[in-house]
Design a protein that fits this description.
Layout lengths: L1 E2 L1 H15 L12 H7 L9 E4 L6 H9 L4 E6 L2 H10 L7 E5 L5 H7 L5 E6 L5 H4 L25 H7 L2 H10 L4 H18 L5 H10 L12 H11 L2 H15 E11 L2 H14 L12 E3 L9 H6 L7 E7 L2
Parallel strand pairs: 2-3, 2-5, 3-4, 5-6
Antiparallel strand pairs: 1-4, 6-8, 7-8
The structure holds S-adenosylmethionine.
S-adenosylmethionine (SAM) binds next to helix 3, strand 3 and helix 12.
C-alpha cells in the first residue's frame, strides 16, 4: 500500500497538536557515507533506490539530499515508523514513495507501483531507536506487555512465545542469539517456573527483573537480559528468514550493474548476509532463473573511528555490498 505523504504529514501535525507531544528520538543512520558510496548515489542519473527497511527515514533522507534526480521507494513493516518517515521526508515528497510491507515481498510491492527494476537497494534491518521507545516491550524498562512485533498486524507476540514454548525450545532460542548454553537453560527454567507460579510474565520490565535475579549469569558488561530480549524479538519478527529473503528480493529487483548494500549489527545477521551472498555469486544452474551477484566487500566494512565514537549504536555495524552481474 503506497502512502500519500502530504496527507500523512497533516495527520501527524494534527495528532501532535492534540496530544501536546513534542519531539521524538530519531534513529541515527549508520555508515551513511559508505552507504552512499557503495550505492554510487552521486553518480546515478535519474535513478531509483529502494530503502527496504526505511524506518524513520535517515538513510533515505541522505540519499535524497545527495542527488536531486534520485527517487526513493521506502518499505517498512512498521506502520508507525512510516508515519515518522513520511513527516521527515515530506520536503522531498515528489521523489519518495513509502510502502507498508515486508522486504521479503519487495518484488511484488514494486510491481504494484509499476516498477520492475531499480539501481540500488539498501537493507538496514533490526530495530530502530524510535521502535525501542515505542512501549512495545522492546526495552528492559518498559512497564508494558511483551509485544515486540514490528508489524502490529502480525499474530505472534513475545508474550505468546513465553506462554507457549517449552523450556527446551526457549533455551535453544536463547542459544541461537548467542547466550551460553548453561545460562540459556537457567533462564528458560526460571521463565517456565514463573509462568506456572503466577500465570505469566506481564511486562518487559518484569522479564528483565526476573533474569537479573538469576544468580551467576555471565552477562559481562551488558545487561544480563540483553540476549534474551534479542532472541525473543528476532523470533517474533522472524528476522533472520526475512533478512535472507530480503537479500534475494533485493537482488531480483536490481538491474544489471545495480547495487545491494546490507548493514548488520550482530553476528547471526552478518553470517546470514555472508551465506546468502555466497549462494547468489554462484552462476545459476541451467534453466534456473535467478540473479547473480559479484561481491564488492571481501571483508565487511566497519564504521570509522569517528563514527564509532560519535554514535555508540553504530559500533557493531558491518556493511557488505554486492553488484548484480546477471
Ligand atoms: C534499523 S531500522 C532502519 C533505520 C533506517 N535505515 C533509518 O536510517 O532511519 C530497521 C527498520 O527495519 C524495519 N524492518 C525490519 N525487518 C523488516 C522487514 N522484513 N521488512 C520491512 N521492514 C523491516 C523495522 O521495522 C525498522 O523500522
Amino acid at each position: 500500500m503506497a502512502i500519500d505523504l502530504q496527507w500523512l504529514k497533516r495527520v501527524i501535525e494534527r495528532r501532535k497538536k492534540e496530544s501536546g507531544e513534542e519531539g521524538i528520538r530519531l534513529h541515527p543512520p549508520a555508515m551513511v557515507k559508505e552507504v552512499l558510496e557503495f550505492l554510487r548515489v552521486g553518480e546515478l542519473g535519474k535513478g531509483v533506490v529502494v530503502d527496504m527497511t526505511v524506518g524513520t527515514g535517515g538513510h533515505s533522507l541522505a540519499i535524497l539530499q545527495a542527488n536531486p534526480r534520485v527517487e526513493v521507494i521506502g518499505i517498512d513493516r512498521d506502520a508507525s515508523s512510516l508515519e515518522v518517515a513520511a513527516e521527515r521526508l515530506a520536503d522531498y515528497a515528489d521523489r519518495v514513495t513509502l510502502i507498508y510491507g515486508d522486504m521479503r515481498d519487495a518484488q511484488r510491492l514494486l510491481m504494484q507501483l509499476g516498477v520492475e527494476q531499480v539501481d540500488g537497494c539498501l537493507i538496514d534491518p533490526g530495530l530502530s531507536l524510535w521502535q525501542m521507545d515505542s512501549k512495545r516491550g522492546f526495552s528492559f524498562l518498559d512497564d508494558a506487555p511483551l509485544d515486540m512485533r514490528m508489524d502490529r498486524a502480525s499474530q505472534v507476540t513475545a508474550q505468546t512465545l513465553l506462554q507457549t514454548l517449552s523450556a527446551e525450545e526457549m533455551e535453544n532460542l536463547f542459544v541461537q542469539a548467542g547466550e551460553r548454553r548453561s545460562d540459556a537453560r537457567r533462564i528458560a527454567q526460571a521463565i517456565v517456573k514463573e509462568r506456572s507460579r503466577s500465570g505469566g510474565i506481564p511486562t518487559a520490565k518484569a522479564l528483565a527483573e526476573l533474569v537479573t535475579q538469576i544468580k551467576g549469569l555471565r552477562g559481562g558488561r551488558i545487561h544480563p537480559a540483553t540476549k534474551v530480549f534479542m532472541a525473543l524479538r528476532m523470533a517474533v519478527n522472524e528476522e533472520i528468514d526475512s533478512l535472507r529473503l530480503g537479500i534475494w528480493e533485493g537482488s531480483k529487483i536490481l538491474k544489471k550493474g545495480g547495487r545491494l548494500v546490507v548493514l548488520t549489527y550482530q553476528s547471526l545477521e552478518d553470517k546470514t548476509v555472508k551465506e546468502t551472498f555466497a549462494t547468489l555469486v554462484q552462476p545459476p544452474e541451467r534453466g534456473e532463473e535467478r540473479p547473480m551477484l559479484r561481491i564488492l566487500t571481501k571483508d565487511p566494512v566497519r564504521p570509522s573511528y569517528q563514527e564509532r565514537h560519535q554514535n555508540p549504536r553504530a559500533r557493531s555495524c558491518k556493511l557488505r555490498a554486492a553488484e548484480r552481474v546477471k
